[in-house]
C-alpha cells in the first residue's frame, strides 16, 4: 500500500512536502490588524512590514480615502507621483459612460485605485473614481474636456490630490 496512513503521503518527496509547508507559511498571514485609540492619538503608524513589502518597491505615495458616511478610511499605495478624484452625477451608469472612462484611463495612463457608485433616484446616479497618475496637471485640461462630453452628465467634480495637502 503506497500510503502508510490516511493523512500522510509517503510517496511525496520530502523536498516537495517542505515546499508546501513553506508556501503555507508564506500565505498564512494575509493581513495585520490593530486597535487604535483615535480619541487620544489621532496619528496612526503604519507597520514596518508595509515599507519592507517587495510589491511596494518604487512606491511614491499613498492615497488616503475617507468614507464620510461610514467613517472608514482606506490607504492605497501609489506608484505614481500624483492623483485625483472624479465625481460624476449622471442620468445613469451605462456602458457608454464606462467606455468613455476606460478610454480616458488608458489614454492618460491613469491607474484606477478605487471606484464607487450608487443611484439614489431612477434617473440620477453618482459615480466616483480615484486614480493615480504622473504629470496630472498636464493631463487635467483633456480629462476635464472628456468628462464634460459625457452624455447625460448633470454635474462633475475633478479634484487633484497632492502630497502634503491634507483634508
Would you mind describing this structure in some detail?
With 167 residues, the protein is an alpha+beta fold. It has a domain at 48-161: 2-Layer Sandwich (Alpha-Beta Plaits). It is 28% helix and 31% strand. The strands form two sheets. Strands 4-5-3-6 form a four-stranded antiparallel sheet, with helices on one face. Strands 1-2 form a two-stranded antiparallel ribbon. Strand 1 and strand 2 (73-78) form a beta hairpin. The N and C termini lie far apart (68 Å). 12% of the residues are buried. Mean pLDDT is 85; it is low at 1-9.
Strand-pairing-aware structural class: alpha+beta
Annotated CATH topology of the domain at 48-161 = Alpha-Beta Plaits
Show unreliable segments: 1-9
Mean pLDDT: 85
Query: What is the CATH class designation of the domain at 48-161?
Result: Alpha Beta
> What distance lies between the first and last C-alpha atoms, to the nearest angstrom?
68 Å
Reading side by side through the largest sheet, how are the strands ordered?
A: 4-5-3-6
Say which CATH homologous superfamily of the domain at 48-161 is assigned: ACT domain
Shape: globular
Helicity level, as a percent range? 25-40%
Q: What is the CATH architecture annotation of the domain at 48-161?
A: 2-Layer Sandwich
The biggest beta sheet is recorded as: 4 strands, antiparallel
Order of secondary-structure elements: HHEEEHEEHE
Cα-based radius of gyration, to the nearest Å: 23 Å
Number of strands: 6
Number of separate helices? 4
β-strand percent reads 25-35%
